[in-house]
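In practice, a research group might receive sequence data for several interacting partners and want a quick structural hypothesis before committing to experiments. The following worked case mirrors that situation: the sequences arrive first, and a predicted assembly follows.
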Amino acid sequence: MNPTKLITALIGMLVMGVLAFWGMAALWSYRTAQPIERGQSGLAATDTVRALQQGVQQDLQLAKSALQNGNQTDLARALDGARRVARVGNFAADPLFATPLGAIESARNAIQNHQHTVAVKAVQEALGAIAAESPTGRGELTVKPDQYTRQQYEGAVVINACGDRIGRVKTMTGGKAVLVLGGKQDIFGFINVGGTEVTVPVHDLVLGQAHRLGPKMVALLP
Amino acid sequence: MNLSFVSILAQPWFVISWYVIGLGGAVWVALDAYRVNVNVNPALKWAWPIIILFFSIIGIGLYLWTCRPPHVGEKAGEEQKQLHHRYVDSMFKKVTGSVIHCVGGDGLGIMTAMVISRLIGLSFWQEFWFEYAVGFAFGWFIFQYKAMSSMTDSVPKALWMGGRAEFFSMMTVMAGMGAVMAFVTPLVVGEQPNPMTFAFWGFGSLGLLVGFVVTYPMNWILVKIGWKHGMS
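A structural hypothesis for the assembly, expressed as tokens:
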């Protein structure tokens, strides 16, 4: 093959590969940027654990409605959101989140095996468990937000109390966290584009672990 | 957006039937390629059963349509060889062979890595890159290398020829797979289903099928410029 044709083909293949990657990342970004439909009331709690508790409750109520009206997409998104918050809560707070998290995992497993009745029961169980009082009666974090190091916060994915991904932690400075909210964050795990910088007190954040080996995740309280 | 209709991929009856047909088809093709349709090239003899396991009835259809000449069992020797070569001689069939070979290797690596990722708990993008690396390694060192080694006696040259083809084809296979992982699966059954669920295997197959479609144009160019030889 003559060199000009070969170079043209190579450029064409590179462009095709980059476009395919871009398309895939765009789909990921589009999905993660769209929060599920929520009620107008918002979350009013200022207490850390209470706020996470309310976030999980709101997601589970949405999951319950989605199970009733057969909307699999809303159901999947609501359960994923609930799981993210419950995992952060389970990592950061007292054992209050352990039982709901187990029931949320069961509900997810049930929809992934197309077992509607089991999913309904598990969501109901999770709702009952998350409504319970904190076993310690205090609703406190196991480790205070300022006891973590800067390295543990930096790069963490920021979620709201309902589990929607809303940004990332850029850096920490003097007891405050600089967050980048909005824009396109964490594409391919390392590309960040746009967004608005917001500085919040570190006590507004709850640090957790959403995946065993994944990056940290912080919940930004309302 | 409501993608509820895709939830059939999590239904036990569908996934079980899909893989039972796939497994039966994979065994049949493995035997057929060694006993009857013997002129299929060695790398494709490995790739077809893998593809048919995941693509089930679609894979069997593709094999019959693109790789197995009708009445091939009635011929023997050189006559059978010529029949096979004439049958797979069109560009469409050559490229299909190239894609089968590519998705078979990459797909096996991707699915293996996906099981490991879900069990050890990686985040989405960590999983994506892990699958990319494992898929690339399987595709390059096993399937591409095997195909290229039949064209040269030099191991480094076969690795180079396999690596350059794998570099381009893997990008598109993984983009197709990633699109399903990033968008379709989470909107139907939630993010990163566990390997012990039907959804994992149902959506895994869908991901490989989308990867097959997305990588087709790339493989067409690779065959056109002679970097891959496709079906033979």
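Before designing any experiment, note the following. The helical segments of chain A are 3-32, 48-69, 72-92, 98-112, 116-130, 150-153. The mean pLDDT of chain A is 87.
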